[in-house]
Specification:
By secondary structure, the protein is α+β, with helices and mostly antiparallel strands. Helix content is about 55%, strand content about 20%. The protein has 11 helices and 12 strands. The chain has helices spanning about 1-10, 30-35, 40, 55-70, 115-215, 215-245, 255-265, 265-270, 290-310, 340-345, 365-375, and strands at about 15-20, 25, 75-80, 85-95, 105-110, 250-255, 275-280, 285-290, 315-325, 330-335, 380-385, 390-395. A hairpin with a 3-residue loop joins strand 9 (about 315-325) and strand 10 (about 330-335). The radius of gyration is 55 Å and the shape is rod-shaped. The relative contact order is 0.06. Magnesium ion (MG) binds near residues 299, 303, 361 and 365.
Amino acid sequence: MFKQYKEAIEKSNIISKTDINGVITFINDEFCKISGYTKKELLGQKHSIVRHPDIPSSKFKLLWDTIKAKKIYKDTVKNLAKNGSTFYVNTTVIPILDEYGNIEEFIAIRYDVTKEIFYKHALEKKEKELEELNQNLEKKVEEKTKELKELNETLEFRVAQEIAKNEEKQHVMFWQSRLASLGEMLANIAHQWRQPLTELNLTIFTLKKVALKNDIQEIERIYLESKNIMQNMSQTIEDFTNFFKPTKHKHHFKIGKSIDEAISILNKLILSEKVSIKVDCTNVEILGIPNELSQVIINLIKNSIDSFIQNNIVTRDINIEVKSDKNYAYLKIKDNAGGIKIKDKYKIFEPYFTTKHASKGTGLGLFISQMICEKGFNGFINVKSQNLMTSFIIKIPLIKSNNYEK
Ligand SMILES: Nc1ncnc2c1ncn2[C@@H]1O[C@H](COP(=O)(O)OP(=O)(O)OP(=O)(O)O)[C@@H](O)[C@H]1O
Ligand SMILES: [Mg+2]
């Protein structure tokens, strides 16, 4: 029975026996197989023959202290085979006592765990790699987040900058367009003064003749007439300077006022180009700056006149109509100047879009007009073009005036 046990243990385990000094007295075949030494080479040697240089001597001290104290020692030990390879064994060293309780010899039972240890090490290595990878990833994510955040911040800054630039540009365009109409208006002043100047010249000549006759009554009449002529001249100047005054206070005013102003400024052009303008205006008040609406109307009338000329239209009609409902005022300017091509219709409000020769148009008129309608009046401007006719419709919200504002 005992023999069978012994055989079973010896077949499945690595067994060795040493005397009390650690000198090997027995080893089984399994020991030889794993260590690569023959029995001959091992018997009579100390166990240190398979000692691995990695193992600190403190471990051996612990082993000897334990077994000399007649206790069982258990550990997983790293060993060195004859061919220099490493093997791991789970080791149990049992001190065998004689009948008096003294240590007679030591039996060591081991089993091979090399594969498990290698797997364990490989696993640990992988785990470590994974952990490092993880840490790297975290670091990378952190870096990328920071980069993105910075990008975002600079983007916000850049967007703000672009907006500011854009506003600046619109401002410049606004004045560019106003300056363009300035030339037009100066020509108009000159024209409107020519006639009264001739009249004045004539009146003063008459005055000279009458003065010689001492006709006090006639002198008085001529004086009043001259004063009247000069008042008219001065009014013309007044109108134009008013138009260019940078009055920036919004107030309630009648749309008709802006229409009259626009027509009076374009008077010379309208007459010389033989354009008939009909105005059908209800009494509607809106909130904003009258000069700005005049500028829109001037732009629209000028566009119509340009088209009349370009398309050689003989009967030139412009109809201006003002209506309102509960919430909006509608200003419609319609011409029969030939219409707008469908392909251009969607571009006409873009800055610098023009179908005219560079000397005739900058393509800013409608862009500025739209800007004024939207920003200055909270409104909209739309275009319809069919049957060789074009209508621009401006829709402006009505805001009730209160008495203090006027
Ligand atoms: N009443 C209209 N009839 C036909 N085409 C028009 C009319 N109004 C505008 N357009 C077209 O729209 C284009 C853009 O008009 P916009 O007033 O913006 O610029 P422009 O008149 O060409 O130049 P600018 O007004 O700066 O001198 C014109 O070139 C023209 O082709
Ligand atoms: Mg124009």
